[in-house]
Prior knowledge:
302 residues, mainly alpha, two-stranded antiparallel sheet, 14 helices, 2 strands
Amino acid sequence: MKNKRIMAVPAACFICVIAVCVIGIVVGSFCDFRINEAMANKTKIGSIFATFGSYFSYCLYPAAGMCLFKGFKKKGCDMLAWVLLVVGYFMAVCYTNSYSGSKVRELFGYTAGESSPLISLLSWGLMAVIYAWVPIVCRFLFDNVDPDKLIAVGAAILVAGIAADNVNLWLKQVGSRPRYKYLITLDDPISEYREWWQMTPYLAGNDDNFKSWPSGNMTIASMMFSLPMLADVCRKKSMTKNLVCFGIACVFVAAYGYNRIHMTNHFLSDVCFGTLISYCIYAVISTAFLKAADNRSRKTEK
């Protein structure tokens, strides 16, 4: 374990994140409702961050697409390289539209059923434009000396992102936990409050008020823990840069977690479970992909 790395940082970093999440779950299991009573307070700046903060995480999808592009381009698979670059780019635009597209359309004054469809297309165009810089910058930053590693990193980010999102959606249905923002609209909020383990599977259905556990936004935020892996395939890589990226990810995830509680969307245990589950999925998938790439590189050297 001494020299073992997980997601391009020492295993100790991984253990620390897991430990913080577990502690948060334990504390939340006893104090979730009281913590929200003390912290919940919707603000305008909090609302902006809640809506558009996911942009920074979704930038990792086109970055992953560029990893795959450079890796397969180096191997002579030009068509596959372009297809995967487009897939990574499309995923960023598609997920942004799913999570915050309505807010973007509001900026253009779009009203469903009343406004011109061209306004909706314009909002899609804006979402496409705001990600355009990512693959351009990454093309110059990423090194293509080890194409197998580039492919492993890019594929891990895309696959883990899809896996974490779908696992989260399924668990929301299994848990069907009422959100705090819904509870406080009731005359007796505590009467319908449930701990995370008091599950009523599939009660949620399409009702967002019963999709508190685990936090889906923390699944998005936890993508940032992939930053060190991207730093590790850059031209001038170093463990120091990897650790700086890990630190940035930790600050971002912590701020996002605070925001979810502050904006009455989630409880502490929701936030910690969302981070824990997603981080573990990313760690397992990235480790498997990178190990396979490393084995392939060794066979090639022989």
